[in-house]
Amino acid sequence: MSTAIGRGDLDTLVRLVDELAGTADWEGLLFLRDRSRAALERGLQLWPAAEYAEYRLALEAPGAWAGPLVVEGAGRFALGPLWEVAASSHSWDEIRQHVPPGPARSLAAHERVVRGENLVGDVTIDPGVLDLPAVLQDWEPAYPVAVFHADRADFPSPPPPALESLVLPPAGQPVEDEESVEALVALARPWAEQSNGRVESVLVEGGTGEAIAALGHREVPAGEIEPAAALAWMAWAAASGGAYARRRGTAAGRLAAWWAAVVVTGGEWPVEPEALGKALATVRWVAWRPPGFTAGWDLHLAGEIPAEGLGFAVAATDRRRETEEEGTAEEG
Known about the structure:
two-stranded antiparallel ribbon; globular; alpha+beta; 8 strands; 332 residues; single chain
């Protein structure tokens, strides 16, 4: 190890990370992380080895080793934030006493919540970080969650809806409501600002058809979906970094989805969970896709609030650059 670090031999160090993780030598893996990080002071760019060592520790090591890595800013260049990585492979009981105080602790806890754990009553979880129930509500979906591996990660989307061609009415008259438009755009803002994509949303007089038409379409594949499915799609998009942006994680995605749902239904924050579930059920939700869309990351959702005569729609897409090798797996 010392020879590889002295030479700045990154390839050897990465292979050594694999060997140490494969033999469950967690102490050796942590030592490699520390030495690789310290080498930066001598101008050796070994941070990828340090990051990879942290990732494998968070993913595979017992809670006593993984928990201390769950801190804000950790895993900046990993396949996902380390609070999500650690929570994907450890129960809360396994890591809770080892995770330091701070925002990342609450994020890790809520990653366990979206995976089905009931953490109501755990006073060590700071409610000021994610002001959400520490248990899934009966009206919420089974959120699609990240699955991390040693050398890759899978980010499954919700089940694709059944879509049929829909001829749209004329575009609806725009309604000035910056908060609603912003809440929908925020679901996929990193795709547009940090990656290769774009996102836009509208609120109009009319219904889902008028809203989708306001985005410039005349005919699209579309289909009604359940409120839980709509929430799952919003959370999935908000969790994702798209092609190149940093992933935010499913817990953060759930928060963004709740916020968007509260805003477009005219609610107030903090929201009573039961009230939000009822409000979501009053909306007619439609999934759709623009003509010609084939692959990439996408969020195309519309909603109609009959009681107010309003419709809204969001369109977000992202994809890898054309210069990249064909056949790269897409997240959506």
